[in-house]
Design a protein that fits this description.
- The protein has three domains: about 100 residues, top7, de novo designed protein (2-Layer Sandwich); about 150 residues, Chondroitinase Ac, Chain A, domain 3 (Sandwich), CATH 2.60.220; about 100 residues, Sandwich (Immunoglobulin-like).
- The chain is about 15% helix and about 40% strand.
- The chain has eight helices and 26 strands.
- Strands 6, 9, 10, 11, 12, 14, 15 and 17 form an eight-stranded antiparallel β-sheet that branches.
């Protein structure tokens, strides 16, 4: 923590702008004592966070009344204040080369924002309690339907053999479909900083004789949802990579999620005995290999294909026109995971650790969205939880205090909070 002193109580003016631009955002901060206050530190961090990457931020460290005084002591005072703020910025891991003191004629501090301070307490985990496993044939492939009614189809000879001789492949699937699933496993919806909305996230792994298998180049597997999507809905297949503890999603080429409707005259190419004997079939739906089920045939499905195993996501990009930022302070649990949950869409984001203990933020959010901030810790079944509902356009810093919950209480509260 910075322990240097300011020389007088004053109103400090912070101006945040890009070099060469006339647009300047003015922010007044009150210092109530001769020390660098927690409020001041928070404003330093907030201004750095909200400045765009590649931009310069100017700290004008003298107040208006001080400038009017024009005393000789102002040169020394402004230099000392720049030194104090500079030291604090270095604590935040901002490199010295990105910090500049200019004299105009008094000292002012300029900071170049080379990168985001994107550190988070959130982390992605696999929940072994929801794992479902089944067997398929290398040579014949196979289709399997999960407990949630989602089908997984593997075509013949889609797996790499990797020297294995057995024809049997064990496939294990983890399904994450709800906001509660996302929060509890740290599955955030983002792709290179852009917000995503998910229809479902999955982890799929395959093994033969204990050896992990991948799909062959040029092969793909299908995931079929019992839900219809229009092409205009804009859902695509994404594959996930774990980066700094969280999964980040990347488009699997341009594999659009589709909802085919197969007419009766076309579907006769694939007929099972049970289907031929069913006189109630109406001729629309999606046919899956295996015995015909009339209820299945009448359903409307969406099919996504993936060229990879591992993390797979059915997502679409969310366009953000008017961007806002949110800041949150955890009063008693700075190491907790902190998530932003959207109420109008199936999506969550992490809040990032600013470097100032207990201060978290999220940037470039859509304005006027009803959201919830949820923060929790889990110490061997001893939970702490805090939450707050707000509108994303709210400018005030959200303050959260985490309370203790038993495992049963925690699960009940989370289920209730994320039921929408």
């Amino acid at each position: 923590m910075v322990k240097s002193c300011f020389i007088a109580a004053a109103s400090l003016l912070f101006s945040m702008n890009l070099l060469g631009q006339a647009n300047v955002h003015m922010l007044n901060v009150r210092v109530d004592s001769s020390v660098l206050s927690e409020e001041m530190k928070m404003e330093v961090v907030r201004n750095y966070i909200y400045n765009p990457v590649g931009g310069w931020m100017k700290f004008d460290v003298l107040g208006i009344k001080e400038r009017q005084d024009k005393g000789q002591y102002l040169s020394k005072l402004s230099k000392e204040r720049c030194s104090i703020i500079s030291a604090y910025l270095k604590e935040l891991e901002i490199e010295e080369k990105d910090i500049l003191v200019k004299y105009e004629p008094y000292a002012s501090l300029w900071v170049f924002k080379a990168k985001e301070l994107q550190r988070t307490n959130c982390k992605t985990t696999l929940d072994s309690n929801i794992r479902q496993c089944f067997g398929v044939s290398k040579s014949h492939g196979g289709t399997w339907v999960s407990a949630n009614g989602i089908s997984f189809y593997f075509p013949p000879y889609c797996f790499e053999s990797k020297g294995t001789l057995s024809d049997k492949v064990e496939v294990c699937v983890y399904e994450y479909l709800s906001k509660q699933d996302f929060v509890m496993s740290g599955l955030v919806a983002r792709s290179k900083g852009k917000i995503l909305e998910s229809m479902g996230m999955f982890y799929v792994e395959a093994k033969c004789e204990g050896i992990k298998l991948e799909l062959k180049g040029g092969s793909s597997m299908n995931i079929i949802f019992p839900k219809q999507l229009a092409a205009s809905d804009g859902y695509f297949t994404f594959n996930g990579e774990n980066r700094s503890g969280l999964v980040d999603w990347k488009l699997d080429g341009l594999r659009r999620v589709i909802s085919p409707v197969i007419k009766d005259s076309l579907s006769t190419q694939k007929v099972s005995r049970s289907r031929e004997s069913d006189s109630d079939w109406e001729g629309e739906g999606v046919y899956l290999d295996g015995d015909y089920n009339s209820e299945q045939q009448k359903a409307l499905y969406s099919i996504m294909s993936s060229s990879k195993l591992g993390w797979i996501n059915c997502d679409r990009f969310i366009e953000v026109n008017n961007k806002v930022n949110i800041a949150c302070v955890l009063e008693n649990a700075p190491k907790a995971e902190v998530y932003l949950v959207f109420k109008s869409m199936n999506s969550i984001l992490p809040l990032y650790n600013s470097g100032k203990e207990g201060l978290f933020y999220a940037k470039d959010l859509p304005d006027n969205e009803e959201v919830m901030i949820i923060s929790f810790t889990n110490d061997k079944g001893n939970f702490k939880l805090g939450y707050a509902s707000l509108n994303s356009s709210q400018k005030e810093v959200v303050k959260l205090k985490l309370d203790s919950y038993s495992t049963v209480q925690f699960k009940a509260v989370m289920s209730d909070l994320l039921a929408y």
